[in-house]
Amino acid sequence: MAGPETTNDKVPQSGAISSGSDIRRMFDKISPRYDLMNHVMTGGLDTHWRKMVAKQAARLEDRPSQRALDVATGTGDLAFAIHDAGVPEVVGLDFSTEMIAKARKKAKKRPPGVEFMVGDGMNLPFADATFDACTISFGLRNMEDYTAAIREMTRILKPGGKFVCLEMTPFRRPFLGPLFKFYFELIVPLVGGVLSGDLKAYKYLPRSVRAFPSADALADICRVAGMRDVQYQLLGFGAVAIHCGTKP
């Protein structure tokens, strides 16, 4: 874990590099091959990372989680992992109708306890203090305002509830940097374009990561948004980070 407990009130209000409507159309289009591309891009590590997030979401400081919300759930893999980790009631929310349709299809083959709905992560359709845990994986980059999005996810948490974010982070390792840039900015878009039929979507991915805050900056954004005890862990040689925080 990393990230000192310092709050920077001058953290900029930053957000996605494309409009919400464009991003929604993009995810609707790539939904048939979305799971496959996640596995290909990460060498299958995305499954392990989601299990790490699910384990954190399932246990709070003083109690186990009873109800969790997974924002930008996509096809539901993290929501299912959270349920498998022991959370009896999980809700997955996404603004892409095609992604939710695929998640619901998966849910029919699983035990009850996970439900899915179409909704806006910037304006969650839940009352304050509704959930014990709130997660988001590879979706924060697509929010129009990162601070406002995390503040909204904080709002629906109960006091002591946990926020966990799995996200790519700008890769700045000097030794591996050129190799990673070649893979991520040339190979991934090419493979993604072939498998999904949408080259534009996988060109958007590296551009959105380049524009995303560093892990340290995102930790500060979490604090400004109302989280305490914010920490993060770098994974994938520093290309991915898991941030977690607690609602006061």
Q: Summary?
A:
The chain is an alpha/beta fold. It has a single domain, classed as Vaccinia Virus protein VP39 (Rossmann fold, 3-Layer(aba) Sandwich).
Keywords:
248 residues; alpha/beta; Rossmann fold; seven-stranded mixed sheet; 9 helices; 7 strands
Give an overview in words.
There is one protein chain. Mean pLDDT is 88; it is low at 1-13. Helix content is 42%, strand content 20%. The chain has a 7-stranded mixed sheet with strand order 3-2-1-4-5-7-6, with helices on both faces. It has 9 helices and 7 strands. The chain has one domain (20-170, 213-246): 3-Layer(aba) Sandwich (Rossmann fold), CATH 3.40.50.150. It has 248 residues and is of the alpha/beta class. The two termini are 20 Å apart. The protein has helices spanning 20-30, 34-42, 45-58, 77-84, 97-107, 146-155, 177-196, 199-210, 215-224, and strands at 67-71, 89-94, 114-118, 131-137, 157-168, 228-235, 240-246.
Outline the fold blueprint:
Layout: H1 20-30, H2 34-42, H3 45-58, E1 67-71, H4 77-84, E2 89-94, H5 97-107, E3 114-118, E4 131-137, H6 146-155, E5 157-168, H7 177-196, H8 199-210, H9 215-224, E6 228-235, E7 240-246
Parallel strand pairs: 1-2, 1-4, 2-3, 4-5
Antiparallel strand pairs: 5-7, 6-7
Helix pairs in contact: 2-7, 3-4, 7-8
Residue stretches low in confidence (pLDDT < 50, at least 5 long) are: 1-13
Into which percentage range does the β-strand content fall? 15-25%
Rounded mean pLDDT is: 88
CATH superfamily: Vaccinia Virus protein VP39
Q: Round the Cα radius of gyration to an integer and report it.
A: 17 Å
Helical coverage, percent range: 40-55%
Order of helices and strands: HHHEHEHEEHEHHHEE
